Amino acid sequence: MEIDELTERVEGVSARYAASLGFERTDEWYVLKLQEEVGELAQAFLMRQGRARAKGRDDAQLDAEFRAEIADVLCQTLLLARHHGVDLPSAVAEKWLVWESERC
After folding, report:
1. Per the database record, which ranges form the NTP pyrophosphohydrolase MazG-like domain (predicted)?
2. d(Cα 100, Cα 31) in Å, to the nearest integer?
3. Is residue 40 a contact partner of residue 52, using CB atoms and an 8 Å limit?
């Protein structure tokens, strides 16, 4: 699946979610929601590493939660970029891929 198609599908899910709960996805919401998801990813990571309470979850559940939180962060990033008109593939190319031929 291409990133543009993924973004539009995620947008549809997010728009339906917001409509069902009756809130507006404002500029602030996109940033704060991403921050919330990054926090949840950090918590899942710490739980998976045994550095936070596992809350009764076994290793398979902790791994699944970690994967799910990575997906949440990616999707919220896609939504934030879409909302602000950022061409994410171009931004990645300009910021990261210019270093492909450089020695680090």
Report:
1. 26-93
2. 29
3. no
